[in-house]
Amino acid sequence: MESHLNTTLTRSRRSLADRASRTFGKFGVFFRGFMEEPGMVGSIIPSSRFTINRMLAPVDWDNCRLFVEYGPGVGTFGDAVLAKMRPDAHYIAIDTNGLYVDYLKDSIDDPRFTAVLGSAADVERIVREHGHEHADYVLSGLPFSTLPDGVGPQIIRATHDVLRVGGAFLVYQFTAVSRDLMRARFTRIDSGFEPLNILPCKLFWGWKDAE
Ligand SMILES: C[S@@+](CC[C@H](N)C(=O)[O-])C[C@H]1O[C@@H](n2cnc3c(N)ncnc32)[C@H](O)[C@@H]1O
To answer: What does pTM read for this prediction?
Structure first.
């Protein structure tokens, strides 16, 4: 009885998600990803342009050769990052969701951009495999509160190690869980808040200082 109910719920969730992705384009694809993996996606709607602008404001684009993004979803930050990036810089976007990675590969046609199916926890290997030693900036839209146990701290460690000295980890989240995790590695963390987002969100910039 219970398994019949679960199957019926899964089917109706899937058909709602399919209809949404056909009808609402980019937003529909995002919503479909949420319906399939709610804990990994963590939000039903992409970030606002206010969050994008505020989050990227401290980036020194002239000195950015490699920009990495975790959890790009349907590429909410993609146009803004590519518009500001140097012509010879690279942008690697890493997401665990194959639906999103396929969408990014189909929709972003820029030689500086690469979408990778994988986990942020493997950022060091991914960066090396793409011919770089370090990242200048790493942006994260990951839902740290709902990631599987141990994954959050692993991502913070790997991110600190992959960044060059002077680089930064840019993080936006509905809660401050990410900042609490960042404190294990980042000694200097700036904070901000963006009310014009669904839901209003907290912003953190963790700077990698010389040891
Ligand atoms: C809240 S969505 C952010 C979407 C988008 N960046 C935005 O601002 O609209 C979180 C994203 O993180 C991805 N994700 C979850 N765990 C991940 C991991 N370990 N590595 C990379 N991406 C992950 C999900 O698939 C989803 O695309």
So the answer is: 0.88
Phi-psi map region of 163: left, alpha, beta (phi>0 left; psi -120 to 50 alpha): beta
> Taking CB atoms and a 6 Å cutoff, what residues make up the pocket around ligand 1?
40-43, 46-47, 70-73, 76, 94-97, 100, 119-121, 141-143, 147, 151
Q: How far is the CA of 134 from the centre of ligand 1 (A)?
A: 21
What is the dotted CATH code of the domain comprising 49-207?
3.40.50.150
Domains in the chain: boundaries: 2-36, 49-207
Distance CA 135, CA 92 (A): 10
Query: What residue's CA is closest to ligand 1, atom 3?
Result: 141
Which among 189, 145, 202, 159 is positioned nearest to 68, based on CA atoms? Answer: 159
Taking only the tens place, the pLDDT of each residue in 10-55 is: 555 445 545 555 555 787 777 787 778 777 766 767 899 999 999 9
Give residue-wise pLDDT tens across range 107-117.
Answer: 999 999 999 99
Tell which one of 49, 53, 96 to mutate to probe ligand 1, the residue whose CB is within 8 A of the most ligand atoms.
Answer: 96
